[in-house]
Amino acid sequence: MKIILAGSSGFIGGEVLLQCLQNPAITSLIVLSRRELPQIASRDPRIEVIVLQDFKAYPDSVLQKISGAKICIWALGSKSNPTKPGMSYETEVEYPLTAAKAILAASKPEMKPQCEKIRFVFVGGIFCEREQEKSLWFLQEVRRARGLAEAKLLGFAEEHQGVFETVIVRSGVVVRRESYLPDWLPGINRFMIRVDELAAAMVDSALRGEGTKTLENSMVRSMGKVLL
After folding, report:
1. Cβ neighbourhood burial of 153 (10 Å; 0-12, 13-18, 19+)
2. How far apart are CA 148 and CA 143, in angstroms?
3. Angle (nearest 5°) at CA 137 between 127 and 169
4. What is the pLDDT of residues 118-128, one digit of tens each?
5. Which residues, other chains included, contact 49 with Cβ-Cβ below 8 Å and sequence gap of 6+?
6. Are 72 and 99 in contact (CB under 8 A)?
7. Tens digits of per-residue pLDDT, 180-197?
C-alpha cells in the first residue's frame, strides 16, 4: 500500500509517521515537505521525501511520483507548527484541497470501474467551525479556515463519488503519548486525546476505509485505545 503523508515533522504527523512505519501493510510512504528531511528519509527505505516549493502547485514530476497512492493523511498545522496569522485560508484550505485534486488527477489514468477509492484523511478538530458566519470568541481565523477545509473536502468527495472519499478526524486537545487521561473524568473522552491514540485511529481509518465520514474525538479515542 502506497501512502502520502503531509506534516511528518509536526507533533501529530510525527506520530502518524511512526504508526505507518510499524505497519507492514504500508510498502511505500511519500512524505510531502517544503524542505529536505534527511532525518526522516533515513529512518526507513520505504520513505521518499518530496520537496514542494509551493503546496498549491504539483508539477508533472511530482504527479508521477504520487501516482498509485490510494491514501493521503493530512496533518499539517499541528500545535508544533501553527498556521501564521493571515495565512489560514491558504494553508488550511487551499493546500489540502489542491493535494486532493492532484492525487485524484495522478491516479485517474490507472483507475477502472470497481477500483479501490482514493481516501483522504484530514485532521480537523472539535473547535473547527464549518458555519462561516458564526461568531467565535477565540482563534476565529484558523477555526473558520479549518472548518471550511472540512466542508470543502467533504464536498469534493461528494462530487467524486465512486473514486474518492474523505475522512474528517475532529480531534480534541491532543496531548503527549505518556499523558494520563482518566476515563472517569467528565468530558475527557469528548475534549482530549493522546497523540498515539489519534495517530493509530487515523492510520487504521485510512487503511480500512468505510466511506466518507466525520469521526468525533470520543470515537477516535475509543478506536485508538483498542488499537493500542
Report:
1. buried
2. 8
3. 5
4. 999 999 988 88
5. 31, 33, 36, 37, 40, 41
6. yes
7. 998 888 888 889 999 999
Bridge partners of 193, per DSSP, are: 174
Q: What is the DSSP letter of 10?
A: S
DSSP character at residue 83: P
| Cα–Cα distance, 84 to 75 (Å, whole number) | 16
C-alpha cell at 176: 503527549
Strand order in the sheet with 213-216: 47-51, 28-33, 2-6, 71-74, 118-123, 164-170, 213-216
**Helices 11-21 and 195-208 sit at what angle, rounded to 10 degrees?**
50
The span from the CA of 168 to the CA of 74, in Å, is 10
Confidence of residue 78 (pLDDT cuts 50, 70, 90): very low
pLDDT of residue 179: 94
- The pTM (predicted TM-score) of the whole model is 0.92
pLDDT digits (tens, 9 = 90+) for 109-120: 555 555 678 999
Phi/psi at 196 (nearest 5 deg)? -75, -35
Burial class (CB in 10 A: 0-12, 13-18, 19+), 224: buried
Please report how the helices 217-227 and 195-208 are oriented relative to each other, as an axis angle in degrees rounded to 10: 90
Strands (E), 42-163: 47-51, 71-74, 118-123
Is residue 130 within 8 Å of 150, Cβ to Cβ?
A: yes
